[in-house]
Amino acid sequence: MHKENPKQGGDHPFVMTSGHARWTVHTTNVVNRSMLETHRGEPSVILSPTDAAGRDIGPDDRVRVFNDVSEFVCAVRISPSVRPGQVIMYNGWEPYQFEKWEDPASIEPGMVKWLHLAGGYGHMRYWLMQCQPIPIDRGIAVDIAKA
Description:
single chain, 6-stranded mixed beta sheet, Barwin-like endoglucanases, 147 residues, globular
């Protein structure tokens, strides 16, 4: 039986998902000049052509991605590989790469992944500057508008 994701972030028409960027680099390397050139030099969300046309959004436009929690602004790319209703924002970008330092983590509500709170079990422990609790990997409800 299929069960829809909870409406984390409010009742909005899009679901923001994520994944690793092209080279699966960690954040410490994402601002390397060579890595930036593989991603157009800045953070961006990816929309389907159908959704972009419906919002009068073109390639490289600046968009505001928002929900009931917060918002962030970045460039947009358009790809037919994205299904309508989906927004893809690859992970690894630093907050200082966004206007007002508001990045995708700013709009992610939700429970903390409980394994990140476990301690004393080999790799499952907290180290300062090494690992921090993050939201559970689920689609986040968002809306999009030209910035």
